[in-house]
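ESCALATION

Customer reports they have been waiting on this structure for their group meeting. Please prioritize. Original submission:
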Amino acid sequence: MPDRKPFRFHLPFRRSRWLLALALAAAAPLVARADEYPPPMRATIPDKSGVVTVPFRRSGGHLYLDALIQGKPAVFVLDCGAGADILTPQAAARLGIPASGTANVRGTAGSSAARLALIKRLEVGGAILENDLVYIVPLPEALQCDGLLGFHFFSRFVLTIDWQANQITLRSPDKFTPPSGIAPLSLQLNENTPSVSVTAGGIKGRFGLDTGYSGAITLNTPFVEKKRLRDKYPKRLETITGRGIGGLLKGDIVRLGVFQIGAHSMRGPLADLSRQKEGTEADSATDGNIGSEILSRFTVTFDYSRKRLFLEPNRAFADPFRYNRSGLAVDYDRAVYTVVAVVPGTPGAEAGVIAGDQVLALNGKPVQAVLSSGIRDTLRGEPGTSVRLLVRSGEGAKPREVILTLRELL
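Update from on-call: job pushed to the front of the queue and completed.
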């Protein structure tokens, strides 16, 4: 599977601070009169400690949290790359959250229409967010969630993600004590999304942080072209790298020499040299993005209130970076798994798989039982592993089985 990047979501306003009054121009029916503001947003942790720890589930590089929306259960993906909290249209209908007004949001691949809504009470563990003004936006089917917890959620608490323990810790800002011996990185907010200064392959830049991006690093198109990075990395795989708001994403996968964030250096991480001509990957506001393949190697603390980021390496810090060893990019849309790209000269191409083939089964199991995360993990298997795919070239065509042997491509 290509690395999923559906959530590099930005609000339609070009300033770094989101102006609520501008949003309300499109959302007047949310309040009693068009000239009124909605009730102020309020975040609380009722426990006197001001601290709550909440478990999450990991799937396909994403973090899933159970929540309550006005007392009804919901599942959210934790996504600091989202410039607002998001609810899907299906979830809004199921939960009885009325939509009001219209807006246009910009994602990784382009733009999409959106509605606005007011969630009166959102609970995650023992943390409560009241009067959360959210965007109602369709999300890729493969994500299988009710929405995203983005800027509003991250900005109201000091939030620590412990990937090793599969849990987050939320603190009231006045209850937070910085971890001892860890120097903070300076956090900048661009369009309500966090960014830090890094060095990628020996080149300095400002990169966004994005827990909703399951890959390692994306280098935005203007940065790639300005630094002539395709000349620097002749060994690369041109492919479909994911699906975002606006459609499929195109880029070249390369392996960087060294990536440095703060005092921490990593060798051989994978990076996507974006080819996008629209959407946030075509932006020059930041030079790139850092996803969960990097962030999951740390215990990460986001302190938006003081614009600080704390990184503590965990046991996974030195693990090798793995990439799809099949040469196939498989996308899930409208309940169908489809091969959207085949890199020439790779195991998938040699086995006879072609772009447009529908994937029906993986190693004898129906793909609906394996899910996107299972396909992703299988195609990242060890070199020499044989993978059996049952595919067909369109509806009504006879299924055929192909066998491909994984090998290192980068």
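Sent to customer with the following note: Residues 4-36 have pLDDT under 50 and may be disordered.
Escalation resolved.
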